[in-house]
Structure to design on (261 residues):
């Protein structure tokens, strides 16, 4: 069942009226949950730490970096712009178009992030492509500790699960490698759907894939763009960001979906 109100301080629920707000329904109104939609990056999984990212990418280029040099390089690359990291300090004019389209086309996603990495001077030939390629393999990501138990509980309880992500590459192989693919019923990926969050269309597409009523669907994410699901008729739970390997409050989803603790 679906409680009305706020979620215990772990995050904020959007689209579900507070018991103190005036509505057309009596207080403590509940509604069944048919489906839960999850954001990917920052919600179900996080990219590996920056230094490990640089060390691993350099190794694939045949170069062994000492940790000090890798740390300095990682800091510069983060400032330039890393997929899954902070927004770039500056996007060079020649990358502006690819940057704008990065979540709509696979080629733009790669061009934008390899182009940003290439603005950082390095003696490692091929590093920009190697850094990007770490995004495409399971070793470049860490699922949050709460991810598998949360997805497994929802699946066992008959609640449909979808992943809705602004992204420029296929994340299905990652879920397969982690043994989680059987727990996800549909993927609405921006580069395949042609829409990006917070556009309501991507959330409606995900609900359509699942055969779920938006009014009985919860979107769980970590950014204001995920709360755009409210405009599609869904409720939305926005969780705080968490570092790789740490729990991020994802278990709160189960309470909102009506599962006892």
């Amino acid at each position: 069942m679906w409680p009305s109100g706020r979620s215990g301080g772990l995050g904020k629920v959007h689209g579900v009226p507070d018991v103190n707000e005036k509505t057309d329904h009596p207080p403590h109104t509940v509604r069944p949950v048919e489906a839960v939609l999850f954001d990917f990056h920052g919600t179900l999984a996080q990219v590996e730490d920056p230094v490990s990212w640089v060390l691993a990418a350099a190794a694939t280029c045949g170069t062994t970096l000492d940790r000090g040099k890798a740390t300095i390089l990682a800091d510069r690359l983060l400032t330039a712009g890393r997929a899954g990291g902070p927004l770039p300090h500056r996007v060079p004019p020649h990358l502006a178009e690819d940057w704008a389209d990065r979540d709509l086309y696979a080629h733009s996603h790669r061009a934008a992030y390899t182009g940003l990495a290439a603005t950082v001077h390095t003696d490692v030939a091929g590093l920009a492509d190697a850094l990007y390629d770490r995004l495409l393999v399971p070793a470049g990501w860490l699922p949050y500790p709460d991810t598998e138990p949360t997805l497994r509980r929802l699946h066992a309880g008959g609640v449909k699960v979808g992943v809705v992500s602004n992204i420029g590459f296929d994340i299905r192989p990652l879920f397969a490698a982690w043994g989680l693919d059987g727990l996800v019923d549909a993927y609405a990926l921006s580069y395949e759907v042609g829409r990006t969050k917070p556009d309501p269309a991507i959330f409606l597409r995900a609900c359509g894939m699942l055969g779920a009523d938006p009014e009985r669907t919860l979107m769980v994410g970590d950014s204001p763009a995920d709360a755009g699901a409210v405009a599609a008729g869904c409720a939305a739970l926005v969780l705080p960001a968490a570092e790789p390997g740490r729990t991020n409050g994802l278990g709160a989803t189960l309470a909102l979906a009506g599962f006892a603790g």
Notes: The chain has two domains: 12-44+144-256, 48-140.
